[in-house]
Amino acid sequence: MKDAFGLPQSLLVLGGTSEIALATARRLIARRTRTVWLAGRPSPALEEAAGQLRGLGADVHTVAFDALDPASHEAVLGKIFAEGDIDMVLLAFGLLGDQARDEREPEAAVRVAQTNYTGAVSAGLVCARALQSQGHGSLVVLSSVAGERARRANFIYGSSKAGLDAFAQGLGDALHGTGVHVMVVRPGFVRTRMTAGLPEAPLATTPEAVATAVELGLRRRSETVWVPGALRVVMSALRHLPRGVFRRLPI
User: What start-end ranges are recorded for coiled-coil regions in this protein (predicted)?
Assistant: First the structure.
């Protein structure tokens, strides 16, 4: 169960090799978390991540999970919840894609959409139902500022994150009063393997900074967290720019 400050004893990570998710897990283990489930595609990277968290003192399990196989989600995730209550689910899987290639190859674009939106809807609903059955828990969804307004440079990824963000907000409203807390995290450009080689955007941040914001959001039971916080003002301004002006921006 969570303590008075909202920090979990048990954590399920969907997207077990995500750098942001692992930074968050490390931070929570240093505070209170003792049991971690890392769900992702079987790989040496997943096992290495589990080993690192075990070295911090956590009891860590790995589970084969594929965001692109929604038909398996209920069975796979149901087995985890059957082992005992989960205090927090961190939905952290995602695919950035390659905008230029994805425009040329619609199948690649669909893969981005299915991973970031369809897979998240499926897994999110399964976990939400399980958390509701428990009567407690947090579902933390890694969204992105890219979902605030689609940009020419990455509108395929941005549109998938816009869908995810809207879904998570609606799910939070649906679960209000049930004991389940849904928190949407909207980072800007995060320096990770996924963004390596890309031009760095203003207000770029790190996985550790996102992890810090997640912890603070849990303590406050926030519904939306911006990382860094200044992006809330920046994106509000960009969202309301006339389309003709927005189209000419070098973004």
Answer: none
